[in-house]
Specification:
mainly alpha
Length: 128
């Protein structure tokens, strides 16, 4: 049980840092704005994306958030990583940076799998 909690929180913390903390701190930098423009998106899209990412991270890390909301947050992040890969591939071609969102998607998948392991009835009984 303890191993499962460690894996879950390690993966979830990586997602929270990449998708919540870093965007919140850097979204208004010229580099971030240029990144959004480079992909062909308007600036307001980047701002909306950051707000959604922060809300998604809060949904994942706060314990009292309903399970259904957490599921939507996981789905939203999965779509974000898939479409980021597509956007980078369409604009930049198949370079290393194109596939980085898929690496983060793998970490998200670990968080999701271990979230469900921790929610299983056998683990709930052992937590009581």
């Amino acid at each position: 049980m303890k191993r499962e909690q460690v894996v879950y929180w390690a993966a979830t913390t990586v997602i929270a840092l990449f998708e919540g903390v870093v965007p919140a701190l850097t979204s208004q930098t010229e580099l971030a704005k240029e990144g959004i423009r480079h992909l062909g998106y308007p600036e307001y899209f980047g701002n909306a994306l950051v707000v959604c990412k922060i809300l998604g991270v809060l949904a994942l890390v706060l314990p009292r958030v309903p399970k259904r909301v957490k599921e939507w947050a996981y789905a939203g992040f999965a779509f974000d990583f898939i479409f980021a890969t597509i956007s980078h591939g369409a604009v930049d071609g198949m370079i290393g940076q194109t596939f980085f969102p898929l690496v983060v998607l793998g970490i998200l998948a670990i968080s999701y799998i271990y979230y469900h392991k921790l929610q299983s009835p056998t683990n709930q009984a052992s937590m009581d």
